[in-house]
Automatic annotation (TrEMBL):
Coiled coil: none annotated. It comes from the Bacteria. It catalyses: L-lysine + NADPH + O2 = N(6)-hydroxy-L-lysine + NADP(+) + H2O. This is L-lysine N6-monooxygenase MbtG. Belongs to the lysine N(6)-hydroxylase/L-ornithine N(5)-oxygenase family.
Length: 408
């Protein structure tokens, strides 16, 4: 491992892979000047694990969205057409993963990932110091944060639940369907109204459970998590012309609308509701949960008008309530925020046009770039849009900035 590098990329998910292919396409010589860090030591482990954990058969995004810049997924899928799902040729999970393996090989990136978690990021004069969990330290001239989403978001009432056995109250990030026992005749309460709630519901039903799906809104059916207009100028033009960051933030919330479920999954669940395997509780929220006599006693906020859950013997509560996007809570951002105070809008940072943190050569991808890239920032296509902004700054001297760090 080099201890003095030019570009350090933190995270080896699909967004980082997209960045590396785009960087090398533009400037192949960068190959020896960049290093990627991920605890797994390889590419896209988190992606693979989240698809396996929720037994997701195919992607929500169309096959045109992928990390490569040279080869299309459709060429690769020439003899695997049955793994492209209607509509919009959404790739099967295995097809997409196999394709990404060819991306890694095509760009000779197998050895590019150092197996380490970055535990601290310190701005030095003209460089950054990365403290690794292996005990080693690395200095990098430029850093890209591609660490994916934030921490699990959990409802307030979870802070007040009484002691309960392990596995009885879990966030979706911690649920691994293949590792679960048979759930025969168990009642599982799933909270949330996004795609993960649907995958988990189907997984629980497959294992014999009866599922209660609770959403604080009416379940929202949408093919993609944001309208396709957000992938191009149709909506982005107005978004990027909006000078008020608070308004932009609101536009992102409105576009994602608190999560949605793809139509075919919701249809499947509605069918299962006819046989009582799933019951929907919409416009309803838990206000209190108490573990007693081997089950959860759950009260909801409309208990005064209808007592929907009190009679249920709920064995498990699963929180499909998403993740937070608060850059000030990001474990690597403490010293950056201290040295380079910046405007933050409801957790999202205001960056320059190259997604660079004002004052230093730190670039942010994924959800952290949303105020610039828009509501799909965290998705595969968002990674590509982030590259369009970051790559010129990393490859062209004319747009690279001279960093003058304030004294420590
Ligand atoms: C279940 C699920 C399904 C999804 N399906 C789709 C889909 O079909 N289409 C789509 O476009 N989007 C989808 N998304 C959204 C998004 O594309 C994925 O979350 C995607 O994984 C984001 O890529 P990423 O590279 O930003 O983050 P990740 O895939 O999360 O990768 C980030 C990597 O950074 C590493 N990391 C984090 N902190 C550190 C650190 N301190 N040091 C070193 N490494 C670190 C992590 O270990 C991880 O490997 C889905 C999301 C989920 C949760």
């Amino acid at each position: 491992m080099n201890h003095q590098i030019d570009i350090a990329i933190i995270g080896a998910g699909p967004q980082a892979l997209t960045l590396v292919t785009h960087l090398l396409q533009k400037k192949p010589a960068l190959k020896n000047r960049l290093q990627v860090f991920d605890p797994s030591g390889t590419w896209m482990v988190q992606w693979r694990q989240q698809f396996a954990a929720q037994e997701i058969p195919y992607l929500r995004s169309p096959g045109v969205h992928h990390p490569d810049v040279k080869e299309t997924l459709f060429n690769f899928a020439d003899h695997r057409q049955e793994e492209l799902y209607y509509p919009y040729n959404r790739p099967g999970t295995q097809l997409f993963q196999d394709f990404c393996e060819t991306v890694v090989d095509r760009w000779k990136l197998r050895d590019q990932v150092t197996a380490a978690q970055v535990v601290q990021l310190t701005p030095l004069a003209k460089r950054f110091q990365l403290q690794l969990d292996t005990g080693e330290q690395v200095e990098a001239r430029r850093v890209v944060l591609a660490t994916g989403g934030g921490a699990a978001q959990v409802p307030g009432w979870t802070a007040e639940v009484n002691p309960h056995p392990p596995g009885r109250l879990c966030h979706s990030q911690d649920i691994k369907l293949p590792k679960l026992p048979d759930l025969n005749d168990e009642t599982v309460l799933i909270i949330g109204s996004g795609q993960s709630s649907a995958h988990l519901a189907l997984g629980a039903i497959k294992r014999g459970a009866k599922v209660l799906m609770m959403a604080r809104r009416t379940l929202n059916e949408k093919l993609f998590d944001a309208e396709p207009g957000w992938l191009g100028p149709k909506y982005l033009k107005g978004f990027q012309a909006e000078p008020d960051w608070q308004v932009r933030w609101q536009m992102i919330q409105d576009a994602r609308n608190g999560g949605s479920i793809a139509p075919e999954l919701l249809t499947q669940l509605r069918r299962l509701s006819q046989s009582g395997q799933v019951t929907f509780y919409e416009q309803c929220q838990v206000s209190r949960a108490h573990w007693q006599q081997e089950a959860w006693q759950v009260q909801c906020n409309v208990a005064k008008t209808h007592d929907c859950l009190a009679h249920q013997r709920i064995k498990r509560i699963w929180l499909a309530t998403g993740t937070t996007t608060d850059i000030t809570a990001h474990p690597l951002m403490g010293e950056i925020l201290e040295r380079y105070p910046n405007q933050i809008v409801n957790g999202l940072p205001v960056l320059d046009e190259h997604l660079r943190w004002p004052g230093c050569d730190l670039f942010l991808m994924g959800p952290w770039a949303a105020l610039h890239v828009g509501p799909v920032a965290r998705n595969l296509h968002g990674g590509r849009m982030a590259c369009d902004r970051i790559v010129p700054a990393l490859t062209k001297a004319s747009v690279a900035r001279t960093v003058i760090h304030p004294p420590r």
